[in-house]
Please model this.
Amino acid sequence: MTMPDDIKAHNRQLIEEFRKTGTAPGGRQLLLLTTTGRRTGQQRTTPMMYIPDGDRLLVIASNAGAPAHPDWYLNLVADPKVTVEVAGETYEATAIPLPSPERDQTFATITAAYPFFADHQAAITRTIPVVALERH
Model:
């Protein structure tokens, strides 16, 4: 997967299109996650892939294999109350990073279906978090 040169501009366009049409380009499993900025207190919305898991959705804080956690992950660790926009609906949720060994088992299942996450993990020393979004 190739990352755009200007990821912020790309994400703004993706968010706008998603909110207008209710779907992601190419039919991808995409949600919008709104967190509260840990330093600013401002709402921050990030588009990301999700994986259905029973009554909850899972998101992976791979940051495309970067050595640091993504900002959205750091924000939800500071304040786990989030807003999820997915498939034409918006709801409040609690973001819960999966503890080991649940994270390890879940990550193995995810990488079997989406091998690029294994590539991301192999490129870095930090453990990529898997986060459950549990609807209120």
Notes: The longest helix spans residues 7-21. The beta strands are 30-36, 43-49, 51-53, 56-60, 81-86, 89-97, 130-135. The chain has a mean pLDDT of 94. The CA atoms of residues 50 and 59 lie 5 Å apart.
